[in-house]
């Protein structure tokens, strides 16, 4: 009997697509999302949704309470802390973990206008030398870190259009001329028009993969001659008990093979 003892992590489009496929096959699951935006992303799914961040202790307790037998990490590629916490709990409880890694095309990006770096500090050091108006398409989670490291610059931020995120931007002293509340991903044509509208001198973005519209953010920079700084993905820890897959269909097959349909 399929008893819903599968716990999926992720408020991403990848997680939603997987859950929709599991719904179609009658596979029960629980979905853990960190924020209200993640819950909105999960609207209409049949699984039980848990909102809020969990440390390792809370996560382990949740798994024990609900008899979780399998973990699936479909969190954002940059959610390194969450992925490490999931791995810690997986080791503590001794249950299987499958992790979805979005395919990366960063190695195919090679152009003098593209600056690849592995940290916010380095990204900001580079940006400080390239222009005045700096557009962040990196989300709101680390926005304060960028602002603190870009003194004297005009920081523009494209963020999710939620009350929480907008309040966060305002708390950092950002004005309505600096905040662009939009939900992507966007086409290359939209981004090119948007970059022109913003009058941006530099774009800072993340290696978000196809689902995050990475190439569509890069191409307009090259077309317009705008430097683009890419903060590459953090390396995630691996374990012998972790199955890592880069194909969402493979993740679906892995999960459905372990849970019978009601």
TrEMBL record:
Keywords: Cobalamin biosynthesis, Oxidoreductase. PANTHER family: COBALT-PRECORRIN-6A REDUCTASE (PTHR36925). InterPro entries: Precorrin-6x_reduct (IPR003723). GO terms for biological process: cobalamin biosynthetic process. GO terms for molecular function: precorrin-6A reductase activity. It comes from the Bacteria. Pfam families: CbiJ. Pathway: Cofactor biosynthesis; adenosylcobalamin biosynthesis. PROSITE patterns: COBK_CBIJ. It comes from Morganella morganii (Proteus morganii). It is an enzyme of class 1 (oxidoreductase). Its EC number is 1.3.1.106. This is Cobalt-precorrin-6A reductase.
């Amino acid at each position: 009997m399929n008893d819903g003892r599968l716990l999926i992590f992720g408020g991403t489009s990848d997680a939603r697509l997987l859950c929709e496929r599991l719904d179609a096959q009658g596979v029960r699951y629980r979905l853990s999302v960190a924020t209200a935006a993640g819950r909105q992303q999960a609207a209409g799914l049949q699984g039980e949704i848990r909102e809020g961040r969990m440390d390792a202790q809370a996560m382990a307790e949740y798994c024990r309470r609900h008899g979780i037998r399998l973990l699936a990490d479909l969190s954002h590629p940059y959610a390194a802390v969450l992925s490490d916490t999931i791995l810690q709990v997986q080791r503590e409880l001794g249950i299987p973990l499958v992790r979805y890694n979005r395919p990366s095309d960063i190695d195919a990006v090679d152009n003098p206008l593209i600056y690849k770096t592995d940290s916010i500090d380095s990204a900001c050091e580079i940006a400080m030398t390239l222009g005045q108006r700096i557009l962040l398409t990196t989300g709101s989670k680390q926005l304060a870190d960028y602002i603190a490291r870009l003194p004297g610059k005009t920081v523009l931020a494209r963020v999710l259009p939620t009350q929480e995120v907008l309040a966060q931007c305002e708390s950092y002293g950002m004005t309505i001329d600096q905040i662009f509340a939009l939900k992507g991903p966007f086409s290359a044509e939209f981004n090119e028009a948007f970059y022109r509208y913003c009058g941006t001198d530099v774009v800072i973005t993340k290696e978000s993969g196809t689902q995050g519209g990475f190439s569509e953010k890069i191409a307009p920079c090259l077309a317009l001659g705008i430097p683009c700084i890419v903060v590459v993905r953090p390396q995630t820890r691996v374990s012998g008990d972790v199955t890592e897959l880069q194909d969402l269909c493979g993740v679906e097959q892995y999960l459905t093979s372990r849970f019978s349909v009601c």
